[in-house]
Amino acid sequence: MTHESKLARGLGLGGSATVLAALLVAGPALASNDNSSASNDSGSQNSHLAVTESDFGKTPQGQEVKRYQLTNRNGMSVDIITFGARIQSIKVPDKDGNVADVALGFDNVEGYIHKNQYMGATIGRYANRIANGQFTLDGHTYNLPKNNGPNTLHGGPEGFQQQVWQAKEIHPHGTVGVEMTYLSPDGQMGFPGDLVTTVRYTLDNDNDLRIHYSAVSDKDTVINLTNHTYFNLEGAGSGSILNEVAMINADKYSPIDKTEIPLGSARAVKGTPFDFTTPHTFGERIHAKTTQLMRAEPKQGGYDHNWVLDTNGNLDALAARVTDPKSGRELEVYTTEPGVQVYTSNFIHGKYEGKGGKTYHHWSAFTMETQHYPDSPNHPSYPTTELKAGKKFTSTTIFKFLPE
Q1: What pTM value is reported for the model?
Q2: Phi-psi region for residue 291, left (φ > 0), alpha (ψ -120 to 50) or beta?
Q3: Is residue 369 annotated as a catalytic residue, yes or no?
Q4: With 151 labelled, which of 10, 127, 158, 282 sits at a CA distance of 20 to 30 A?
């Protein structure tokens, strides 16, 4: 049996199995630039890099969930679970070498099902919102389940974050990682086409956490993938992120209507609370009584908007940076995506008990959801999210943590 046939059988693919499986394993377009699958070597680049697998419980349906821990020589570790292909933990040292977990999350599968299904998750098929749960493609109108007022949010109620992904450890040169794969069948959550998606998480000794997405469909479809980790650089559960300092390389942002759908054209950030072209704390202007901040959080104000990046898809260009003055930890973001949705956890409200019994409060984290713009299928002027049948979708984001 060929490798493609084994892959197709494992994913449960139907008539399109041969084409999709062949494309999934074909060439660098569906893998990261460092796509070697060789085992660990004794070279200096792989020194102290390791991956370990363990059990993380079961879903209510009895599906086993695995956890993969990636570690490097600097004391950094990243835990990724197969439920939602999500980041469960990121532990990094501060300026004094003290290690803390900077990613919000839960100690068991039940927390991700019943408390907050998006924490750390791979979001798809379509990250962010689609207006009125509807879009038209190739002359056909597709109707999606509405799970956010009148809109569809993050792929619908049974999106990628609710699925158990297949996984295997990988050892690209100079890194260590895990590759996760999921088949979204034709019609799931209303989207057309059998879509095979692969997410590769890799960690190196420079504290770069690289997330590489790839996908292929047997029908024309739309796709928008992101990671939804909630970050607090002082440490998850340590308090608010209002004193953390952000810089976003974007001269424009996408204003939203009352249901958080983009109004159309982007607006200049200059002279608004959305101007992070120079560093500002999240809290400096979050209470400003502006329509846009109040639409993201009607009681106290908040951020939940798309910034139009000025990086032109250049993975070497800095897209965003957040620094925690107290710990000295810093997060740099690099991406091939045209936008980043920054969300200041406006609706946690202290109701979530997270890892280690810590309670997560209002404004206790931020996200850096690198992605295409919200509701792009209904905005022809936006960068397209259409994926043609048989074509390969790829996207890469790097979360770099300092100090190393």
Answers
A1: 0.92
A2: alpha
A3: yes
A4: 282
Structural domain range at position 305: 31-402
CB 82 within 8 A of CB 180: yes
Please name the amino acid found at residue 391.
Answer: K
Q: Is residue 130 part of a domain?
A: yes
CA dist., res. 28 & res. 394, Å (int): 10
SS3 292: helix
Looking at the structure of the chain, the number of domains it has is 1
Residue 335 lies in a domain: yes
Two structure tokens written together for 291: 């329509």
Q: What is the pLDDT along the chain (404 residues), one digit of tens a residue?
A: 444 444 455 555 555 544 565 555 544 434 434 443 334 444 556 779 999 999 999 999 999 999 999 999 999 999 999 999 999 999 999 999 999 999 999 999 999 999 999 999 999 999 999 999 999 999 999 999 999 999 999 999 999 999 999 999 999 999 999 999 999 999 999 999 999 999 999 999 999 999 999 999 999 999 999 999 999 999 999 999 999 999 999 999 999 999 999 998 999 999 999 999 999 999 999 999 899 999 999 999 999 999 999 999 999 999 999 999 999 999 999 999 999 999 999 998 767 799 999 999 999 999 999 999 999 999 999 999 999 999 999 999 999 999 97
Residue 18, in any domain of the structure:
no
Which of 228, 305, 362, 372 is the catalytic position? 228
Active site residue 244: no
Q: Are strands 64-71 and 252-254 parallel, antiparallel or unpaired?
A: unpaired
Catalytic-role residue among 154, 369, 372, 379? 369
Q: Is 345 within a domain?
A: yes
